[in-house]
Amino acid sequence: MKIVILSxxxxxxxxxxxxxxxxxxxxxxRVINPLRCYMNISSxxxxxxxxxxxxxxxxxxxxxxxxxxxxxxxxxxxxxxMMGVYPLNESVAISRSRDKLRSLQLLARKGVGLPVxxxxxxxxxxxxxxxxxxxAPLVIKLLExxxxxxxxxxxxxxxxxxxxxAFRGLNAHFLVQEFIKEAGGADLRCLVVxxxxxxxxxxxxxxxxxxxxxxxxxxxxxxxxxxxxRSTAVQAAAIMGLNxxxxxxxxxxxGPVVMEVNSSPGLEGIEAATGxxxxxxxxxxxxxxARQGKTRTRGSG
Length: 301
Ligand code: ADP
Ligand code: MG
Hints:
By secondary structure, this protein is an alpha+beta fold.
């Protein structure tokens, strides 16, 4: 098969591993910067071009689209979908998962456990917004942050109000969330591939930090998850419509709660913690599922 990996970082661990795994399994794997792709959006023959060359020979596309380029990156992916190229994760599913509010609403609708979360527009409602999550300590999150950036812990109600005012002053959209203190700065990363949890790790925040992101100095270790945690992760990925997802779960007093579902989960931490060939499993999934035109939405929705 001919596989294209949409990534701006050919040297990044995850990108390199996907290329390696593709080649190891006898495929052609090529990394292409989505920002250098341009498109001809015609109804009869949609095309994608890259540095003067037409890209028309691919069977499958693996999106590794950074959060800062979601808009353009998903547009390029959608164009591949229109051409019938099989996407590992579909553009609509990626857009859905990148919006924390939209994701939580979709998960809530299906009864998935979530931290108590509130959302408002008007500054007049700040006091009640904080009451809805049972007061301080509370977590305030920008809707489109990643790698722990834009996630703030307010220890007191006053601190919470100041942060909310500051975010509002910047015209930023944010969520207010109960702080799951009992998680002790740890969360579970469950890697789902094709409806199965194929690897799990526990990430622990460094001392004095509540965010467990590896980018924020968190450390990863092996962990066994419970059957409920496993089914929660699988369900969350399915609701988002993602074939490959990193589902982040906190162990709360009211059971497992999903914090977010990542559509381009990093492979470095989880392969190191588990010793598993996750990139190989992803390529294997593509081998079993990629068919010309087998895109559920075909670039719509
Ligand atoms: P990002 O997209 O930036 O990774 P997350 O929502 O995943 O944002 O939050 C980053 C980290 O902060 C999580 O991995 C977790 O360790 C911690 N965290 C986030 N929300 C909560 C919460 N409600 N209670 C406790 N810890 C939280
Ligand atoms: Mg996260």
